[in-house]
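agent> Task received from the user: take the single chain below, predict its 3D structure, and emit structure tokens. No templates, no multimer pairing.
agent> Plan: (1) validate residues, (2) run structure prediction, (3) serialize to tokens, (4) report one or two observations.
agent> Step 1 OK, no nonstandard residues flagged.
tool_call: predict_structure(input=
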Amino acid sequence: MHAPTTGWRRCAISLLLLGGLCGTAAADELRVVSSGGFAAALKTLAPRFEQQTGHHLLLDWGPSMGDTPQAIPQRLARGEPVDVVVMVGNSLRKLLASGQLAADSATLLASSRIALAVTAGSPHPDISSLPALRQTLLDSKSLAYSDSASGVFLSTVLFQRLGVAEAIKTRSRMIPAEPVGMVVARGEAQLGFQQLSELIPVRGIDIVGLLPEQAQLVTDYSAAAVQDSRHASLARQFIRFLASPQAAESIRQTGLSPTATTAQQGG
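)
tool_result: status=success, residues=267
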């Protein structure tokens, strides 16, 4: 009479073990590459997604544009196994147009503005108006800006518009593949310009504030699944999580403005 019961127990235990093994095998690794502007938000949100889903995220960072090996377009061009990218909207649109990203997955996540930082404890220059910002640039001993969207805007548009491009040419430089705030923290530049979300995590600097609205570039950050991702369904699940209301407050705390709006054209 006891043999059948024992047999059923063994069968049930075997099924439970098999289910556990199957659950482990079903856990996937999703490779995500993000530009620096969304990095702080991603570092905060990734553990939450992993806990909720049981899947593992492999995070890496790189500029949305440029020729450095870390740049997202360069990574995709050489065939790195990436599943999801988070990057500046204009750059993402180019990758959509080339067919490297899945158009139906493109989602607008947040927007960001440019801020100014100085070494911690240094005097805070006046950037409260366009004339004040112009004078601060002219009075500066050295300044640095990123090699991504904000830096390209500053060096090719704003400095020209303010009429200071030639005057500051020899004391300004673009910083590739490193947060501008770190350069300022080391005392290698008096002024550092970058997205607010990229300056907030850096120690050793004071954030003076956002540039005047007339001098701003509002940068959109969007996510999309890579076209040939082997984890297409999971990639889309992760993107929906990033755009969800539950992620909005974490995004806001990193200096970004969450949008939680699907962008069919990449932001």
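agent> Step 4: summary for the user.
The chain has two domains: 29-112+219-261, 114-215.
agent> Done.
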